[in-house]
Design a protein that fits this description.
single chain; alpha/beta; globular
Length: 155
């Protein structure tokens, strides 16, 4: 495989777990997307903040915007918040140049599925090729399923 980056934001650990499984399979480099201001720990508080951020098209500042320049394939992982990617992932995509890159999205959710997450990634990175995503419910990301998904992508 080509140079691979696995960039992810994880609030509760579910997306991190999926990212680590992808890293084990691909040998890519992990990059954790970290907001400058941490989100509240409590479920209701983070849901309320995520809703407000989506309504206001807010892009939270990150501790490090990362750099996708030296990578051909970038796996991008996010929890699904209000039918799309979490704010820190939006910021990561907005602050990097994905022209000519391949984005391989993955997400974790609490019951609503991927919703508009993958389509919204394509909108934020219109010059990238966004592949079919891997979607898992909460902490159910399975290494065998991830391996089959990656193999089917023919990267």
């Amino acid at each position: 495989m080509a140079n691979i980056l696995i960039a992810y934001y994880s609030h509760s650990g579910n997306t991190r777990s999926a990212a680590e499984k992808i890293q084990k399979i691909t040998g890519g480099n992990l990059f954790e997307i970290i907001p400058s201001e941490p989100y509240p720990a409590g479920y209701n508080a983070v849901v309320a903040q995520a809703k407000k951020e989506k309504e206001n098209d807010f892009y939270p500042e990150l501790t490090n915007n990362g750099n996708v320049k030296n990578y051909d394939i970038i796996f991008i992982g996010t929890p699904v918040w209000w039918y799309t990617m979490a704010g820190p992932v939006k910021t990561f995509i907005k602050n990097n140049d994905f022209e000519g890159k391949v984005i391989v999205p993955f997400c974790t959710h609490g019951g609503g599925g991927a919703s508009m997450t993958y389509e919204d990634m394509q909108k934020l990175a219109p010059k990238a090729k966004v592949m079919s995503g891997y979607t898992s419910y909460e902490h159910s990301a399975n290494e065998n399923d991830i391996k089959a998904w990656i193999n089917n992508l023919n990267l």
